[in-house]
Amino acid sequence: MDPQIRELSEKIERESEFVNDIFNEISKVIVGQKKMLERLMVGLISNGHILLEGVPGLAKTLSIKSLAATIEAKFQRIQFTPDLLPADLIGTLIYNQKTGEFFTRKGPLFANLILADEINRAPAKVQSALLEAMQERQVTIGEDTFPLKEPFLVLATQNPIEQEGTYPLPEAQVDRFMLKIIIDYPSRDEELLILRQQTTGDVELPSPVVKPAAVFRARKVCREIYLDPKIENYILDLVFATRNPEKFGLPELKDLISYGASPRASIYLAQASRAFAFIRHRGYVIPEDIRSIGMDILRHRVMITYEAEAEELTSEDIIQKIFDKIEVP
User: Fold this and answer.
1) C-alpha 32: how far from its chain's center?
2) Separation CA 98–CA 19 (nearest Å)
3) 199-217 burial code (b ≥16 CB/10 A, e <16)
4) By the 8 A CB rule, do 52 and 181 touch?
5) 164 φ, ψ to 5°?
6) CB-based contacts of 209: which residues, under 8 Å, 6+ apart?
7) DSSP state at residue 284
8) 147: exposed, middle or buried (C-beta count within 10 Å: 0-12, 13-18, 19+)?
9) Closest CA to 214 of 64, 20, 30, 51
10) Phi, psi of 326 (to 5 degrees)
């Protein structure tokens, strides 16, 4: 191994020790869901927002709340409903009759970790207000602009089983989320542990183990993680194969993809793979990092055609074929 990379790996190993402390603390409350917790950490370290999809009762809220508790961050849950207004998120100007002046009342977005619960329940105007705050990391109320507190991370949930009375996020807006995580049911053994844990006493939130400063430091250090040119080209091959599959020996996918992944996919694959290497205590990215996190970055960025739907294929099926075909460096 190159001496510089070895030195960098030793540095990453020291700097990433707090990740194990966080996982150990959260595991006192959350049973299983290792994949989801790892991806929440990737989002936090690489400063990318996350879309979570799963049926109710899979500990989505508790996981995010627990993560906020371990890093001493302010957590805020917002339940999205059809009657929600943008002012209910960002805040509004209130008239004070005594002084005859307006004052600003900040909304729940002024927190660190925001859980936007069932984001597809609120109309487009509210979704846009949230997405603007996610992108700009600031909020304008009246004539004043307020920066949002760092770390600022939005974790939005969607319920896949009910579509009546919902407002699906447009594809272009879904692209703002770094990761889309599909959460599955726990195993039988895990559910037995959950049953015992939840029915034998009060479940307390985890204790703080690090300050937010550790997250900021991790973000800075992550940029130093070595990304070999071969890995960069592997990322580009995967993304370009979603746009022009016929050029990568996949002509059968051409009529199944209506839109390939945007340049955000390339950027996020690089950032998330570095963060994934960080939580694995490594100073360099390996192809397995890309393959581990790739589906969560690409699944909501590859739009399929009606022909693919008729063949009962999903974007995940198509992405998996690309991963199977593109040569690993």
Assistant:
1) 18
2) 51
3) eeeeeebbeebbebebbee
4) yes
5) -70, 135
6) 18, 21, 22, 25, 70, 71
7) B
8) exposed
9) 20
10) -70, 130
Length of the chain: 329
Q: What does the DSSP 8-state code read for residue 248?
A: G
**Bridge partners of 115?**
77, 155
* Pair of tokens at residue 226: 């070595």
Query: What would the two tokens of residue 319 be?
Result: 């992405």
The ranges assigned to domains in the chain are 3-216, 225-325
At 22, list the tokens.
């966080």
DSSP state of 52: E
Please give the CATH number for the structural domain made up of 225-325. 1.10.8.80
pLDDT at 164: 62
Tokens 């703002």 belong to which residue? 176
Tally: H helices and E strands in the chain: 14, 11
Query: Cα–Cα distance between 167 and 234 in angstroms, integer?
Result: 36
Which of 3-12, 35-44, 112-121, 292-301 is predicted with the least confidence, judged by mean pLDDT? 3-12
* Encoded tokens for 159: 């319920």
Query: What is the per-residue pLDDT across 167-187, written as a single tens digit (0 to 9) for each?
Result: 777 777 788 899 999 887 777
User: How much is the pTM?
Assistant: 0.87
- Quote the CA–CA distance of 162 and 164 in Å, as a whole number: 6
Peptide bond into 123 cis (omega under 30): no
CATH of segment(s) 3-216:
3.40.50.300
SS (H, E, C) 88-116: HHHEEEEEECCCCEEEEEECCCCCCEEEE
Specify whether the CB–CB gap between 70 and 40 falls below 8 A.
Answer: no
> How many angstroms separate the Cα of 71 from the Cα of each of 53, 65, 191, 245, 285?
24, 10, 27, 43, 26
pLDDT digits (tens, 9 = 90+) for 79-92: 988 888 888 888 88
Question: Higher pLDDT residue, 125 or 170?
Answer: 125
Q: Tokens at residue 293, please? A: 């996190």
Kindly tell me if the per-residue pLDDT of 238 is higher than 90.
yes
Token pair of 287 as six digits: 């192809």
**What pLDDT does 231 receive?**
94
How many Å apart are CA 135 and CA 9, to the nearest integer? 32
